[in-house]
Amino acid sequence: MAVGLSQGTRGRRSAGRAKAGGRRREEAAEVHGEDGCPVAQTLKVIGSKWTLLILRDLLTGTKRFGELRRSLGHVSPKTLSERLKELERQGIVIRAVYPEVPPRVEYTLTEKGRSLGDIIEAMRAWGERWGR
Questions:
Q1: Cβ partners under 8 Å of residue 41, min gap 6
Q2: Fewer Cβ atoms within 10 Å of its own Cβ: the N or the C terminal residue of the chain?
Q3: Distance in angstroms (rounded) separating the CA atoms of residues 107 and 64
């Protein structure tokens, strides 16, 4: 127990802080709209596991599914496929299917996808400086 505070006083202060925190979140939601802040919106697009690494690889150019899978290492084909479909749905990746046997499928970043390059470069630089 804190010195000079009774159990009841601490409880009221905590409840007051919780209410204030709730008000701040509500105010932030009003300022940034229902979808939340721009950082939260960006995380909805690129925050899933593997997504940033897929984008990192595609920033160097067009890749086939197998190339991405080998580059990423332990990603399952199902997960990679799901992430690529989501990126395609978001307008970040273009999926090109060529009528060959066996079928050839290539993935390329759109302009919107390439615009994420600065974010990924900043993360790389931060990781080199602080991540070790």
A1: 35
A2: C
A3: 6
**Taking the chain (132 residues) in consecutive chunks of 10 residues, what is each chunk's mean pLDDT?**
44 49 55 74 91 97 97 95 97 96 95 96 95 81
Strand-pairing partners, residue 64, are 106
Residue that the structure tokens 């046997």 belong to: 101
CATH code of the domain occupying 45-130: 1.10.10.10
